Every structure is written in C-alpha cells, then in structure tokens.
C-alpha cells in the first residue's frame, strides 16, 4: 500500500510527536508499504538517507513559540502531490493550514483519510496570549476531524474529550517505548559525577519542552519539595523551549542540559533517580513511558499515560488531576522512595509490556481499514 503522512513536525524536530510519527513511518516501511512524508523541515544531514521521500512546505513559527511551526500549502498543491504519489490513504497529523488544505484536496479527489489528534493546542491558547478562543478552536477541530474517516489519539482520556466535543469515530492508538534504548543499563557514573553526586544521593529529573504549557511553576515547586527530603539532590532539566532562558535566570540552582536525543537522552534518564512531570496538557506523555522504562521513580498527574501505566505506591506516584498540593506531597513520597529496588523494577516491568510493534500493527490496520471509504460517508 501507498501511505502519505502529513505533519507539521517530524525529525530533526525533537519532541514526542515527531519521534512517534518517525517510528510509525519506519514501521510501515519495514512492513513493505511505500511511505512519503509531507512536513515543514528538510531532513538533517544524518537523516539524508531516510527510507522515504520527504516533501517540505512553507511554514511560519507558532506565535510566541518559535520552536514550533505551522505548515502552509494550497489545496491545488496537495492535489498535485496526490496525483503524483497516488496514495491509498492519508494520515493527517495536523490541524494547521497544512492539514486543512490536505483534507480539502483529499475530499475533492475521494482519497480516504485518518487524522491524528496529537497535541492539546486548544489548551495552549491562554499561555500564548490568545485567551478566550478555546471554544472556537474546539469547533474548528470538530469540523476538520469529522471530515476524516477516523481520528486517532493516544489515550482514553483524550478520546473521551474528543467524543464530548462531537468528533466521531475516535480511536485510541497508544504509544510504545524502545526498552533496549531506555534502560537502567544506560546509567552513567561519569554523568552523575558531572552533576556532583555519588550513588548515595538521588537526582530529580525533568525531560520535555521548557514551555509555559508544561506547568513550569509547579515544576520548580516540585523540585523544591523533593529537596525538602534531600537538600543535596541535583535537579536536572533536559530540554529546550521558549521559557528556558527565563527559567535559567530565575533558578540558576538547577542543572540545564539542553535537548538530548538517542543514547545521550537515554543516559540522562538512566543516570537520574526520580522523574517529576507536572504537565496537565498531554494527550499521552511519551516521556513518562521513557522514564519508567529507564527504571525511574515517576511522579505525575492521574490522566493519559500515567493513569495507564502507574500504580501509585507500587511503580510510581500519582496525584489527582491538577491538585497541586497532592502533587507536591507525591514528590516528597518519591524522594523517600527513590532507592526502593522493587518499585523501580516494577516501573521498568510496566514499560516492558509496551513495545512499538503492536502499535505499528494497529496503525497499519487503521489505515488499511479506511481504504474504499469516501468523504461523503464521513464529512461534517
């Protein structure tokens, strides 16, 4: 089969959506399908030999967030691309102008589509100086997704939210983790020494975008709560984003590593001991799965991936959604339990049950199942 994946973000971008889509594309290619990608960024030199053709479109930075881009194209341009590649089905992972033009062109040509809801952008509006538009955004998202045969999202919580909005045919496509890459065996004494600790002192870690929607104020409070129990514990921030400089200025006591990928990222996870993740805007939270696979004591809110993966007190710690006081209490619990081998082993085991192969097989099934449908069967 011939599948076209359409997305604003794709490697070399460093984020969970880009990594997920690259993994899915690679998996489909390995299963014998012909894959092409439409995105907003050229491949980096090390990706020049990627196993699929990449088409790049015009893009502009998301207002207030130069690290993210919105793709722009026309219906006519997408029709021309479809005429050349002749895809059997599309996967449209964006609701920006790139996604809108892609859906319009597919409707005109009768090409079946599956859409993806990967990011809660509607909840970011207030953080990025666009308050009061969440209801408008929901209406736009409903209109777009209901023109596709199926909408996939990574967690049951998000699927229920989309259904409440009136989006039809919502399905859950979970996430996986490379347990060989994200493993306790990647622990680096040299890296820990660079952070100023031996094996008797825990390291608290955050991995993700350093951005307003990640609840950074609570993150700083979580680090402080952890250090109430272990005052000498380093607090390490792995990632980049629009709030990095201000966070560095306000909290020079934290260790900032910048964005990491591959084995370097895996070593940073494995060399820490506790993972504190206060975000309340995730559709899934890939970093939680990576942290648990690395054997970390993870603290997060009870929704999305943490709800699926964490049994509080057994393999991590959960707080009721958006209850900041409870979250900080759980961070203190994590500080006390950081070196409990059964808890850390249970975290690793929970992740080992979630490999990528089953996700790729489901994704393949979702795409092939819509072939033969027409836009008139599912248009808004």
From TrEMBL:
Keywords: Transferase. It holds the Pfam family Glyco_transf_4. InterPro entries: Glyco_trans_1, Glyco_trans_4-like_N, Glycosyltransferase_grp1. Residues 190-337 form the Glycosyl transferase family domain. Residues 14-180 form the Glycosyltransferase subfamily 4-like N-terminal domain. One of its GO terms (molecular function) is glycosyltransferase activity. This is Glycosyltransferase involved in cell wall bisynthesis.
């Amino acid at each position: 089969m011939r599948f076209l994946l359409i997305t604003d973000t794709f490697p070399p971008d460093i984020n969970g959506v880009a990594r997920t889509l690259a993994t899915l594309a690679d998996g489909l290619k390995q299963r014998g399908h012909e894959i092409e990608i439409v995105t907003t960024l050229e491949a980096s030199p090390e990706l020049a030999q990627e196993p699929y053709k990449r088409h790049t479109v015009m893009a502009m930075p998301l207002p207030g967030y130069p690290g993210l881009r919105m793709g722009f194209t026309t219906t006519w341009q997408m029709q021309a691309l479809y005429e050349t590649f002749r895809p059997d089905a599309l996967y449209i992972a964006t609701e920006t102008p790139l996604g809108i033009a892609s859906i319009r062109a597919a409707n005109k040509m009768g090409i079946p589509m599956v859409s993806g809801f990967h990011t809660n952008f509607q909840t970011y509006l207030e953080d990025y100086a666009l308050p009061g538009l969440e209801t408008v955004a929901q209406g736009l998202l409903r209109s777009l997704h209901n023109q596709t045969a199926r909408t996939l999202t990574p967690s049951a919580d998000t699927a229920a939210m989309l259904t409440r909005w009136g989006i039809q045919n919502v399905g859950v496509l979970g996430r996986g983790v490379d347990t060989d890459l994200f493993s306790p065996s990647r622990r680096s004494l040299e890296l820990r020494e660079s952070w100023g600790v031996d094996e008797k002192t825990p390291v608290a870690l955050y991995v993700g975008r350093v951005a307003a929607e990640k609840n950074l104020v609570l993150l700083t409070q979580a680090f402080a709560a952890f250090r109430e129990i272990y005052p000498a514990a380093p607090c390490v921030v792995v990632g980049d984003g629009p709030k990095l400089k201000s966070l560095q200025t306000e909290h020079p006591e934290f260790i900032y590593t910048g964005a990491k990928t591959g084995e370097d990222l895996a070593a940073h996870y494995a060399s820490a001991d506790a993972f504190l993740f206060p975000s309340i805007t995730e559709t899934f939270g890939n970093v939680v799965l990576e942290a648990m696979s690395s054997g970390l004591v993870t603290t997060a809110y009870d929704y999305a991936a943490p709800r699926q993966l964490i049994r509080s007190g057994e393999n991590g710690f959960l707080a009721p959604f958006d209850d900041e006081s409870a979250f900080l209490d759980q961070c203190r619990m994590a500080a006390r339990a950081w070196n409990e081998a059964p808890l850390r082993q249970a975290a690793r085991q929970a992740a080992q049950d979630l490999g990528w192969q089953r996700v790729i097989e489901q994704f393949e099934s979702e795409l092939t199942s819509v072939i033969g449908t027409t836009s008139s069967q599912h248009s808004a």
